[in-house]
Amino acid sequence: MALYAIGDLQGCLEPLERLVEAVGFDPSRDRLWFVGDLVNRGPDSLGCLRFVKSLGEAAVTVLGNHDLHLLCVAEGIERSRPRDTLDAVLAAPDRDELLAWLRHRPLMHVEGAFAMVHAGLLPQWPVARARELAGEVETALQGPGWRAFLSRLYGNEPAHWDDALAGQERLRAIVNAMTRLRVCRRDGAMDLAFKGEPGEHAGDRVAWFDMPHRASATHTLVCGHWSALGLRVGENVLSLDSGCVWGRQLTAARLPDRHLWHVPCAGCGAGPGG
Q1: Cα→Cα distances 109→55, 118, 214, Å
Q2: Each residue of 82-100: pLDDT tens digit?
Q3: Is residue 223 part of a domain?
């Protein structure tokens, strides 16, 4: 059995099909991890959802910010944005089935020495604690009050984590860290406004995975989201958003030996993801 992790798809089905063929994936034997953002900005969000869903137990995907955006647009909570490419999903005959499946994906996945989350983790969260916190969000998103939860999802506050946080503020902080985080301030606060390239976060900002004494450094964190960062293979981080939707490449890594495969994505250059 081989285990592969694949970076942000964002609606780029054709490169995914080429990448799966390149790694020799066999769904009867192997497994694929997807770091989230299956949809949006690329040309075939509907195809990506159907493909990953069809893999059943052979695939694990965590929720990304674009996946949550799709759920909110489908419920009329958020408006479509100019660069969205979600109309085919919203008009599909299997729309409700696909959206229900997406809503029931985890926010974080942990297996052995690896943990997968779309964006990042706050420095004070050990992996086991982060997995518990993700479970709180999953309970809200999969429960009877999920529409009310989504309706109060958006916002950049609170920026600091406090175990005493409760209700929607607590859930929003967890979601923001796991689906939107790129950098923290040195006091541990999330700076969710930053979307720049590496090296632009000097001064008070630190990449979340470089925060001193990060409690989750016990595991290799598999993630995506930060396409301006690109591929990063570190001792305890494997960041796989190599900018497919920007027209760069889609990347797969075999865990745990970290052998990499890339396919070009010139036909998917719909503009920046994030």
Answers
A1: 17, 10, 18
A2: 999 999 999 999 999 999 9
A3: yes
